[in-house]
Amino acid sequence: MDIFEEVADERRAVADLVSGLTPEQQAARSLCTEWSVREVVAHLVVPLEVGLRGFALAMLTSGGSFDRANVRLARRQSRRPFEELVEVLRQRAGSRFTPPGSGPEAPLTDVLVHGLDLRWPLGLHRDVPAERLRTSLDFLADARGGGLVPRGRTDGLRFEAADVGWAHGRGPTVRGSAEALLLALTGRVAALEHLDGEGLPALRDRLA
Q1: What DSSP element (H or E) covers 91?
Q2: Is the pLDDT of residue 101 over 90?
Q3: Average pLDDT for the chain
Q4: Whose CA is closest to 106, among 145, 67, 55, 141?
């Protein structure tokens, strides 16, 4: 599997899904608490438009904070016409940009998780290829997802996604769909009600 091709396909799928959203849908709060649906789409455009130099400058003007720079850049991009953002996501889907020190699993996970951030609140469904989901789950579980999964969140727990035939870890089990596990591992508490297993109370405490 060429992961960069999977990233490009996923970006185009998100672009197709959000094209034509109403202003009310664009303004809806996403699962990523800092952002509306529109701002999530803008965030997905940031690495396609800004690049490392632009992000470094944003960090300098944000007191060195990666998170503040990320929010600032997404909100700046979100001022553009929505369909323009969608078209950038579609036309530049093949970008092979990765964060420093990361491979293609990082942008794949970014677009998968943020796609869920906007899809779940809007009730939008799409069938994501199982191999794509397994790749991102491995990325998050094995290497803490390039910092997306804080240290200790997965310790002593086993995670199982029966819908894609994936499991990782040892200990009390947390079970659910691959999508719900992706969201929970990256801190989205809305996913907890879609999970079960004897390890769920421990995970719930860690996300509190």
Answers
A1: helix 82-91
A2: no
A3: 91
A4: 145
Q: Is residue 13 domain-shared with residue 91, that is, in the same domain?
A: yes
Residue 136 and residue 83 share a domain:
no
Asked if 117 contacts 32 with a C-beta cutoff of 8 angstroms, the reply is yes
C-beta of residue 15 within 8 angstroms of C-beta of residue 114 = no
DSSP states along 33-64:
TT-BHHHHHHHHHHHHHTHHHHHHHHHHTTTT
The side-by-side arrangement of strands in the sheet containing 166-168 is 166-168, 158-161, 173-175
Q: Which domain holds residue 193?
A: 130-207
Average pLDDT over residues 66-89: 86
Could you tell me if 31 and 116 are in contact, meaning their C-beta atoms sit under 8 angstroms apart? yes
Nearest to 110 by CA among 153, 147, 163: 147
3-state DSSP assignment of residue 29: strand
Two tokens at 60?
A: 């300098």
Q: Quickly state the pLDDT bin for 146 (edges 50, 70, 90).
A: low
Q: Which residues of 2-27 are buried (b: 16+ CB within 10 A; e: fewer)?
A: ebbebbbbbbebbbebbeebeeebbe
Question: Is residue 32 in a domain?
Answer: yes
**Alpha-carbon torsion, ordered 27, 31, 35, 37, to 10 deg:** -40
Interatomic CA distance for residues 146 and 102, integer angstroms: 7
